[in-house]
Known about the structure:
Blueprint: H1 18-37, E1 41-42, E2 48-50, H2 51-56, E3 68-70, E4 77-80, H3 85-93, E5 103-112, E6 124-133, H4 138-154, E7 161-165, H5 169-174, H6 182-194, H7 197-202, E8 216-217, H8 218-228, H9 235-248, E9 253-256, E10 271-275, E11 284-291, E12 300-307, H10 310-318, E13 325-328, H11 334-342, E14 346-349, E15 364-367, E16 370-373
Parallel strand pairs: 1-5, 7-9, 13-14, 13-15
Antiparallel strand pairs: 2-4, 3-4, 5-6, 6-12, 7-10, 8-9, 10-11, 11-12, 15-16
Amino acid sequence: MHENDRDLLPEGLGDRLPQQAWASQTVRRAAHDVLASHGYARVETPVLEFEKALASRMAGVRVRRMFRFMDPVSLRMLAMRSDITAQVARIAATGLAQAPRPLRLSYSGQVVTVKGDGLDPARERLQVGAELIGADSVHAAAEIVELAIEALRAAGAAGVSVDFTLPDLVDTLSAGALPLPASGIEAVRQMLDAKDAGGLVDAGGEAYLPLLYAVGQFDEAIERLAAFDVDGVLASRIAGLRAIAARVNGKARLTLDPSERHGFEYQSWFGFTIYADGIPGSMGRGGTYAILGGAGLDPEPATGFSLYPDPLIEALTAVAAEERRLFLPLGHDREVAARQRAIGWITVAALSETDEPMALGCSHRLEGGQAVPV
């Protein structure tokens, strides 16, 4: 490494400067206040775990996205977390295995991936989420969607919208009403996800073409999906989607894309993506899934969501309000300064006679026990 390269950070990683760090904590605190008010107890997990633990607790977890290396103590393979959900699943299956269900847990922390996602080069992101363990019913799913909307709005997002999907749609249809050879299932999934009508026909999924048009505003799209489901195979799922939409109606714009699969590696019958006005890309995802027991047996149902609020943090940083900063000269009355902090001032104490209020970012100076503009 050249001498002038010593302060470079790896691609996709970065620092948060004071205003960004303030915005990050504001978002995290607001979200956790909402989650706590609904009975979700906060847990914290390590940034490193044994690779086997992270990979085996939930089906669909992609180990190739994780940084992996050998632990010099145990000589076992370690992995840096790319998703906290799997860690919360481990806690539920081990340390809280005997806790009453449904179990409500929340979390936040940094996650790291080997590569960025799509056009986003970032490899480290803040993840904030909640998991409702022991239930994946319509009521559980509706609670989680409602909670994700409320947490995101409390964190400062506006114009929230939610897009519903059915992650196991192709599996459900191919097992009965619209059979597919095992070798063709993944190709049909991919073509539906890509909205590629020609590719879908070439993959042997011509009967699945109507799903490409059962998308858009929820009320209209769900009717098209119901019309497609002539054999009633999807009846329970359609009823579930209607019930969830009815509960959150008016709190967010609702859309439906039943064949969307991107980002839903381990979700089962229900999934959703959440967006906010003025923020590029999605703000997070959620849905139903299963926590696997030992040797992949005895699965426990669960429902949850994860938010990735970094774009929101950047937006809040750009419009951050000016802090109330009060300069305290040498020899100031400490009791008076404490009272000023109690009513909302941020105080900055002088350390020498040469310290100047404006140079230290202060808008006011303590004089005669009062905050005086500088």
